[in-house]
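Input record (one chain):
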Amino acid sequence: MPDFDVVVIGAGAAGLSVASISAGLGLKVALVERGRMGGDCLNYGCVPSKALLAAAHAAAAAREAGRFGIRLPAPEIDWAGVRAHVQGSIARIAPNDSAARFRGMGVEVIEAAAHFVAPDAIEVAGRTLTFRRAVIAAGSSAIVPDLPGLDGVPWLTNETLFDLEEPPGHLIILGGGPIGLEMAQAHARLGCLVTVIEAGPRIAAKEDPELVEGLRAALVRDGVEFREGAKVARVEQLEPDSLAAQAGVVAVLEDGSRIAGTHLLLAVGRAPRLAGLDLVAGGIEAGPRGIVTGPDLRSVSNRRVWAVGDIADPKGLGPRAFTHLAGQHAGILVRSMFFRLPFTRLSYAALPRVTYGDPELAQVGLTEAEARAAGHEGLSILRWPVAENDRAVTEGRPEGLVKLVVGKRGRLLGAGVLAPHAGEMAGVFGLMIDRRLPLSALAGLVLPYPTLAETAKRAAGDYYAPKLLSPFTKRLVDLLKHLP
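The corresponding structure, as predicted from the sequence alone:
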């Protein structure tokens, strides 16, 4: 008889969700974690980054208070206090992800590294554990590029950035994706010089260019310098001199230009944590993007094994590095692994993503370019500027745009939003896309006034305006006006 019904490798967001559900169903569960409970999200990702951004936004609000008639002195950044806020945020959330909490659920938590020794067994802390089912949720880590000179200079990733005891004098960020942009704005607003180097033609390459322009402009106002379409040829050590008290790093671009800074942050992407798992011994197929699974998240080569979270590479969909994906994966896994429901398939059609800048950039479903590339015909592109929203006007935040991509018969295919707290609107769009609700459901939604969400409703209303104000409708109203 196997030692455990379910063995979960990785105690990040996905692994914790699976372990909790498994234990709640009365199964014998082992949860193995070689690092910190809570994984990347709690300790190095979502929680500390959003806590740092909150401090940065507070500093920006103090600087901008004059536009409301409030006169404040320039904010003084207490880096130790900022760090205390970041670490305090982690500490307040940590009990929810703690080993003690999961042991209280009946889960055996083993804080050590694990690797497969057979298709139905792992070795951990000198023990061999057999299982009926295993779930690999080992997550992902920052990619360290093969860059000449990198081995001779100090560099940071999201796992070490929040350990800095002093603020960077000039932070050079390689990569203009969500992590790079969020940390660029956070550090710029906290008084650091920041340069973002993006090898591709533009930052936020996956997002709608029309919305990205507004985000770029906001970061430039905060002092962030961008070098787009710029490839780094090598990096060099910068020694301290009379002008620079700190040692640092120089990024030498392919065009020969040199950018000197005190710190270098690598934010060029993420890769699955496959090393050390010995997947070959487990008979588990994997590639550079992660563990290959079917749409039910089950391994294509070992029917006892499932993969969830960043490390999963579902055929036809590919991996996605989002914490909120953990809950969706857990739901798919429960139906697939425990209840053996047929036709259990993963879909990313309504998966939201957000770059948590100020303003935020949120996207659900297809962008305009993706919809056209997919061959959707009869597209309608609806826009409503945030400047036309009364709440935005009262708060002095008129920048931004809601952009809806609508297919035939008024079906919402995608929505992009650039606005303060845009991520808060994403759920409504996701629900509409997932449940295939007509756009009329949004256009007719009664929302409290004044709220930013009204911009979405106004954009949806524009879809029906031509019909409402058509010559036929006007003739009909003209006839009906004579009725008593």
